[in-house]
Amino acid sequence: MNVQIKEKHLSIPIKMFSTNPTYTNPKPCKHLADYKLIHGLNGYNSLQKSLKTTPDGRTAMNRDQSKIPRCSFCSGYEGRMYFCLICSSVSCCSSSDSNHAFLHSQTENGHEIAVDMDRAELFCCVCCDQVYDPDFDKSVMIKQILEMPRNNNGMDLSKEKSIKRRKLVSKVISDSKISKELVLRMDRGSKSCFPWGLRGLNNLGNTCFMNSVLQALLHAPPLRNYFLSDRHDRETCRKISSDRLCLSCDFDAIFSAVFSGDRTPYSPAQFLYSWWQHSANLASYEQQDAHEFFISMLDRIHEKEEQVRRPNKDDGDCFCIAHRVFAGLLRSDVTCTTCGFTSTTYDPCVDISLDLEPSNGSSTEVADKSNKLSQNISTLLGCLDLFTRPERLGSDQKLHCEHCQERRDSLKQMSIRRLPLVLCLHIKRFEHSPIRKMSRKIDRHLQFPFSLDMAPYLSSSILRNRFGNRIFTFEGDESDMSTDFELFAVVTHSGILESGHYVTYLRLRNQWYKCDDAWITHVSEHTVRASQGYLMYYVQKMLYYKASEEMNCLLMSPRGDPFLPTAECC
Amino acid sequence: MRRASSINRPPTPDAEVDQEQELSLQEIINIKLIESGEKERLKELLRERLIECGWRDEMKAQCRAFTRKRGRNNVTVDDLVDVITPKGRASVPDSVKAELLQRIRSFLVSAAL
User: Fold this and answer.
1) How many separate helices (H) and strands (E) can be counted in chain B?
2) Which residues form the USP domain (chain A) (predicted)?
3) What's the pLDDT at A559?
4) How far apart, in whole angstroms, are the C-alpha atoms of residue A349 and residue A332?
5) Residue A123 touches partner B, C-beta closer than 8 Å
6) What is the ipTM of this complex?
């Protein structure tokens, strides 16, 4: 039964992020500008020899162990020491009263720019302030890259020794007692306390992989809004396209059915048939992988829309609903370990696949008592850390360096350039070994947060962490990107590889519901946390709360009758 | 003609030679700390401790507050150092001070041997 909904203008922003025109590199002071005009990059390059990088990634001017740098005025060695880029003399500055760096600039004409020896940062002796030059930072960065310590498994040692900061560590649930689930009886009346849009999906023969993903997508706020606002008009679609099969149309039909108020389990047969038509290789009653299904579904939606809308391929972003909701942009930096030259590429993605590794707890020499426990548990944040960690590519994976004009050993680092509205995180639990012709499943429990801040995994954060306080502009500032996400669906897998079962947990208005094919039950947070996460769906925080508000406005008839909306109050 | 008194003046002493004669015990210890690399290690330890206990975050916040009040373009590194240093020194946790002092003591004992 189709529900008549007053069409609300739920516009999905197409370009979520715009470049921030007010962000630019700080302008050089007159003295730095003059210095650059006269000396160019010579000073910076000759400085490289004296730079040394500490294990935790900080660069300083190498202090000759036998000779302590002393101020040329007072022979002091305390306070901040500045190295003149013109004459290489050292001056100290211990307070604004005793500023010998300034004195140096007054006694020697033109000796205005110096380097803070402890920090390898530029200083203007006349302005008595730090100054910034991207060229300087570049030359320091190159030195840092070349000096990165090597070790066996190719990990960047400088980040292994990460210092554990004061963070909110979520409590570790050791023995999870499965809480009593409130199982409501299947009759209509008692289901009336369920939120709108919760309806079981019948298993049509090992189709839990499909049902689980569908449940998650049915409650992805931007998708839900799009289809419930009738943005995909089935009539128009049928008229326009010659190909009568359209997955979006069938998906739209499921939306209508699920949000109709009818609580009896629904059979998405038409949808399954449509999907089979397009994914012939997967058309069988065998078990399939939920992630593969998710990707193929987005693919079908995208292809269809491309056919209809843009016969010519356009440059830039795709505006089909699948991409508008799920597409993000990944950045990959590949650095040649011989010359330090880095090449950057951007690739669009509709999800992020993460390797499941035990979380690297702090491995500092200093004992970290409070976090000993977390060292043995895999966490989602640990997987994201692993994803964005620099990886030393094996000698069989040498990449061509433009600078050296040869294949060289390289370092690769991933980061996220642009976040989507809905972020799908896929945990690689299925290991396929082509050599042994075997696949196995990794059952290890993964701890995942309900609220996720993706800021540390953005390109700007990753690069900043790697190179410290170096100034360089990004193509478009990322500070206006919202990075807070809320979990709204978890697709879990239980059982072995060949015969397992997918179940989805949905979070609606801060309550959790288990969607196990035709059976929907209310469960506790505890149960969700103890489950084996396979696909985690996060949505931008503001969209999650907006969706919750919208749900609150629409009241259910207490008798569980087919739903009739009251006037919207928001 | 009378000779200028400047001729009879002894030659200007070499700055470094002058320096060595005036080295205090404190300075000698400091030099030993640096030359053995212990000072670097102590600095690293101190850095870790101050980050762990949130001291660095607190200082960052104070710097931001100060900069916001004064105006971003009216603040230099010197200003910040002058203002934040006393606050920073006063807020180092006693446990951190104690640990470092202990390390320095051990070093002195081993250096004296």
Assistant:
1) 7, 0
2) 199-541
3) 41
4) 12
5) yes
6) 0.72
